Amino acid sequence: MRTQHFFACLLAGAILSVILTSSTAAQTPAMNKMPPLIDRQHFFGDPEFSGAQISPDGQFIAFLRPYKGTKNIWVKRTAEPFDKARAVTADTKRPVPAFFWSRDGKYILYVQDEGGN
Questions:
Q1: What does the DSSP 8-state code read for residue 33?
Q2: pLDDT tens digits for range 41-87
Q3: Are 62 and 55 in contact (CB under 8 A)?
Q4: Under a CB-based contact definition with an 8 Å cutoff, are residues 114 and 94 in contact?
Q5: Could you say which of 3.30.450, 3.40.50, 2.60.40, 2.20.25 is the CATH number of the domain covering 40-111?
Q6: In the chain, domain spans
Q7: Residue 53 backbone class (left: φ over 0; alpha: ψ -120 to 50; beta: rest)
């Protein structure tokens, strides 16, 4: 009786092994296939808009956006579409890295590198 049980378990194990091996083999090519590369521009390129900030009174939105290929500050009213924004800075040599609104919301203050100094 024990011998029959042993051979039945051995046979079941062999069948299970064949089933698992065949299903794994069928999945192996798909598993080894690499996903497509993501374009570096998505990670390291300038975004269309960045660093958006709402003015203290809530009337305007300022943000960074390229102007002639260089990141500058743009402003628009909150209700206006982005294509109605106006450039506040227009430097084509050095990008504006950061800005902020003054407390009263009348001014936008920013830092900018000049010639790499």
A1: S
A2: 888 877 788 899 999 999 999 999 999 988 999 999 999 999 999 99
A3: yes
A4: yes
A5: 2.20.25
A6: 1-33, 40-111
A7: beta
